[in-house]
Write a structure and sequence with these properties.
The protein is an alpha+beta fold and 518 residues long. The chain is 35% helix and 14% strand. The protein is globular and about 75 Å long.
């Protein structure tokens, strides 16, 4: 029988490191530890720090008479075996709601009052820690800080409700149901109103994100290595930096480049923060995940940003997809800390991002057509490397999906288009490829040449079904596919239908793995 005590949970550099030799599934994890499901009614929470395990055990014991507390079956130095809740958390339960139901407000107020009466100092609970059971019965988990943190007002609860646009309707009910409690909360907020100028943000160290108090009531937008961003108005946000030199570097770029269309507007600056335009819209990485082809508009927009950066004197010429926001006023690019500091003439990170989305080849073809001079500058081993990586990723993806790669006799591959500069770069990194720029040795001389599609032996053609024959007849009428290629396409699984794009005869034929887009 599996023993959950054999599961190891450690704190890694970026996230928890879990070694689970048992069959118990992981159902949740956080900063304190991880939770595994033991049965339909039981789960175990394994802690990284035994001190935190003891703190939660004491908190649950102090509130064991409360109906929303989980039942505890067993405790140890670093674990608690407790009741398993098979239900959605309150954030998921309220998602897409336009108004806060009064019945739910009453239950939340009852939980907060009972915590206070029991002596808890943290009169608070994030929505993700509240589970909705049958008949809208609530259960609350994660009580490690129940007697450690001082939250006389539900800061995290109000913050989460603000994220899903239900804070105002919640407070309206509170004012009606518990006027004294509402006055107490309002008085606390008035006394402790947070001015973004006083929010402490600390550097997380080399290669790590910044740190700040997670209970800050301002809507949190995002954070990175240099700073954290909070929304302070409908059309404004503030970026607070962990290091003053990062603030100075980015402000220099933003203020001097306000005339550029892709730079956010700046309203106020200081030694540790920048108030700027709040950008409403998805980032380009999220947008391209849902696209099957790279549109000309997107390719042109990216190219214009990069060429404008060069003309404006930027040293770092790059536009990562996650930093490119699609707004009603066009593309906007954020995070310019190193734009005037780092010398980078080629958008390597953009190449990597587009290769991951399988759009790099399409983008480069459009650049080659509309801006040949820019293409010549980018035509480097770094570009070759990421083009080849895209090709390899597509090949692996096709194999993992269990489909055959369809090739057109005589078609050009990515390497053919690049004059066969690389035939196999899987063993080379971008840095190693730099050595080939100034030497007469190409990587293709050091590795075995990959056979072209025309050299791959063909498998005997199998007899097709009536359904496939009908497809062949339709294709012949449209004059789009050869019989052999259609026979292969006819055998694809249902999950791959709709992914195939055709190429008319008489035009330049691309390998199918560059035609299929996610």
């Amino acid at each position: 029988m599996d023993d959950f005590k054999s599961i190891s949970v450690r704190k890694g550099e970026k996230e928890l490191e879990i070694d689970n030799p048992t069959s118990y599934p992981l159902v949740g994890k956080g900063s304190q530890g991880a939770v595994f499901k033991l049965s339909e009614k039981k789960c175990v929470k394994l802690f990284i720090d035994p001190v935190q395990a003891k703190m939660e055990q004491e908190a649950i014991e102090a509130g064991r008479q409360l109906s929303f507390m989980p039942e505890v079956y067993e405790t140890g130095t670093n674990y608690i075996v407790m009741e398993y809740f098979d239900g959605p958390d309150l954030k998921a339960y309220l998602k897409n709601g336009m108004f806060m139901p009064e019945s739910i407000v009453k239950k939340l107020l009852s939980i907060l009052k009972q915590l206070k009466e029991t002596g808890f100092t943290m009169i608070d609970a994030p929505l993700r820690h509240i589970f909705v059971m049958e008949n809208e019965e609530f259960k609350v988990v994660d009580h490690v800080n129940g007697f450690k943190r001082d939250h006389p007002v539900p800061l995290k609860l109000l913050r989460d409700l603000n994220y899903i646009l239900l804070k105002e309707s919640f407070l309206m009910h509170v004012e009606k149901l518990e006027p004294e409690m509402y006055k107490e909360w309002k008085s606390y907020y008035d006394r402790n109103k947070i001015d973004f100028r006083n929010i402490p943000v600390e550097s997380g160290g080399s290669g790590k994100g910044v740190k700040f108090d997670s209970a800050i009531s301002l809507p949190f937008v995002g954070k990175g290595h240099q700073g954290a961003v909070f929304r302070i108005d409908d059309d404004k946000c503030v970026k607070i930096y962990g290091k003053p030199n990062h603030a100075e570097q980015e402000q220099k770029v933003l203020v001097s480049s306000q005339h550029l269309s892709f730079i956010p507007k700046v309203y106020e600056t200081d030694s540790n923060y920048t108030v700027m335009e709040y950008l409403l819209g998805p980032d380009l990485n999220s947008y391209l995940k849902k696209q099957r082809v790279l549109s000309k508009e997107v390719a042109t927009g990216l190219l214009n940003i990069l060429t404008t950066m060069k003309k404006a004197g930027f040293k770092q010429i790059d536009a990562p997809l996650r930093h490119t926001i699609i707004t009603a006023n066009g593309f906007k690019v954020i995070d310019h800390v190193y734009s005037f500091a780092r010398d980078q003439k080629i958008p390597v990170e953009l190449f990597e991002n587009l290769a991951e989305r399988h759009f790099l080849f399409s983008f480069i073809e459009q650049v080659k057509e509309s801006a040949p001079e820019t293409y010549k500058e980018w035509d480097t081993p770094e570009l070759d490397y990421w083009l080849e990586q895209e090709k390899l990723q597509m090949s692996v993806k096709k194999e993992s999906e269990g489909t055959n790669r369809c090739t057109i006799p005589g078609s050009q591959t990515c390497s053919d288009t690049k004059n066969n500069i690389f035939q196999n770069t899987a063993g080379f990194s971008p840095n190693e490829m730099n050595s080939f720029q100034k030497s007469d040795k190409g990587p293709n001389k050091e590795v075995n040449k990959v056979p072209s599609s025309s050299e791959v032996p063909e498998k005997p053609q199998k007899r097709t079904s009536k359904r496939d024959d009908r497809k062949i007849k339709r294709a012949k009428k449209k004059d789009k596919l050869t019989k052999r290629r259609l026979n292969r396409a006819g055998k694809r699984s249902k999950r791959n239908r709709g992914k195939y794009r055709t190429v008319k005869k008489g035009t330049e034929e691309w390998p199918l793995n560059y035609i299929i887009k996610e």
